[in-house]
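This protein record is not my work; I was only asked to verify it. Where you disagree with what is written, explain briefly why. This is what I was given:
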Amino acid sequence: MILRSRRVVMPSGTRAATIHSRGEKIDRIGDYDEPFDSDDETDYGDLVILPGLVDSHVHVNEPGRTEWEGFDTATRAAAAGGITTIIDMPLNSIPPTTSVAALLTKAEAMSGKCWVDVGLWGGAVPGNASQLQPMLREGALGFKCFLVDSGVPEFGWLDRGGLATALTTMRDTNAPLLVHAELAEHLHAMTDPHSYRAYVASRPAIAEDTAIDMVFDEVRRSGAKAHIVHLSSAGGLDRLRRARDSGLRLTAETTPHYLYFAEETIPDGACAFKCAPPIRDRANRDRLWDGLDVLQAVVSDHSPSTPSLKHLHDGNIERAWGGIASLQFTLPIMNTRGLSLDRIAELMCAGPADLAGVAKGRIEPGADADLAIFDPDETFRVTPEIIEHRHKVTPYAGEELRGVVKTTYLRGMKIWEHGAHVGAPGGRWVRGMLNVEC
């Protein structure tokens, strides 16, 4: 397969180039105007060729809560959004992915359903430290933990001692411990169950900042690798810079919704916007945007549920499930906000791939031929009929976004083109020990 474009986004920058792939891998990169004679060649002209995006923070929820999403619909949405690899979170599936048996159960549940490649995070919960290294040997890429109530009873949260134990157990593995960083001692009851401002006040930035301080201290003690998920508080940026400057293995990510929306514009009763930590004010958003240099990744934290659990019928934010659905739209969201193509490749392709330890996210010889053909100038409106997620609930409904994914290739196979899926599900379990064809 030979693809060419005047705008190919590579680690060395964006330039005109020709991509030659053989089988599933990129074979070499040539000049745009080099002559060639092939029956399988496409000139994309001024359309952009990006590496297939890697989303390392996706809640698929299967098995057990497949009615919330599921591997089929989640990976369909990913393919439509130019995402060729997702890493699934260990909750909210039942059983949660906190043991070898549960990891293999999830791998079997995704067999034959996935349109993109899938990796699996395990979970670190009270009492399962002995399972962590065996799960890594069976294919888990790392572990997720909470320092506060996760929202589901089957996935417990770690206190400081539990955090220290998990980090010590993982110290010599080079796998990351992903941390939902909030401390319960700083959380409050809402004063008005329908007020978004009351919700933000109930989960103040200090809850996040002090939790990051705790993780900072435990990483320094253990020497292990930790990663703060869905950073919403700009106060965390200085702590992360201090960790980077100190040589600590502590990184972080943020999400498109923290960079796109602002608390001041969210109306009361708008439960589609509820997530934890919450979307904060405009000044905080702008500081996050200015602090992208210190972050490892921008990922979706796609966490859907059924419309009834989002309490769309009564606008009760206090009772609504806290999660935002946006998997399909992360690339156009960040393009709309003005993230450059080179930074998109760093923060949404290579960065998440490096976090998960998977050989994805770059256009270079030897890499998987995972590619997204993207028109960064075409606009579209988010309407229910184009949403590939299982449920059509998203705070981006009605938003006009800039940037359209024209074609998606997974390991050299065309899986999305002209607004439709192509072929059949052909995703694989990334690094899994079972021979699972997703």
